[in-house]
Amino acid sequence: VLGIVCIWRIYTKMGLPGWKGIIPVYSLWVMVKRLGKPAAWFWIILMSALGILLSFGVMSVNVMAGDYFPVMSAVTTLLFLGFTVVAIVYEIKLYVALSKSFGYEPLFVIVLLLIPLVYYAMIAFGDHEFTPPQEQPVSAPRGPVVGDGEYLLQDRPEDGHGEEKSDGDPG
User: Fold this and answer.
1) From the CA atom positions of the chain, what is the Rg in Å?
2) Looking at the chain, which terminus has fewer C-beta neighbours within 10 angstroms, N or C?
3) Mean pLDDT of 7-30
4) How many CB atoms lie within 10 A of CB 15?
5) Is pLDDT above 60 for 148?
6) pLDDT, tens digit, for every residue of 84-119?
7) CA 25 – CA 22 distance, rounded (Å)
8) CB burial of residue 127 (10 Å; 0-12, 13-18, 19+)
9) Of 166, 140, 162, 171, whose CA–CA distance to 153 is shortest?
10) Handedness of CA 91, 99, 39, 10 (dihedral sign)
11) What is the spatial distance between Cα 78 and Cα 55, in angstroms, rounded to a whole number?
């Protein structure tokens, strides 16, 4: 019950109706779109989850059949592992984006991996407000690319300098 309350509150803080957070597949779609990620992320996570279920089902049938199909078992195990890795990578990337949108550091996702309910509760009931992706500061290279991928370094206005330096030469 606490998990549902936390998810409801997170979606409310994101400016969405809370009920959108408790509908399993739809909540993933809404979160991907609200965090400004491409729709492909939704499909990758969803297809990876379905691939995991399908691989698990094939492995179960193979075990019940007395492992008569060892090649199928090996291929299914590799597919299962591949789908699992893809799903985990994209879900972590999604939760890093969620953490950043609430002003937390990306390493805050470690809390999610260790104790998920605490992660959700901290976001749901913490003082941090949701910042939509287009309003978040973007870290970009300091200058235009020249030559073989080298950046033309420019001092930032905060530094009090206005000089351009090239190739990272301090002199």
Assistant:
1) 22
2) C
3) 92
4) 9
5) no
6) 788 888 888 988 898 888 888 878 888 877 888 888
7) 9
8) exposed
9) 166
10) positive
11) 9
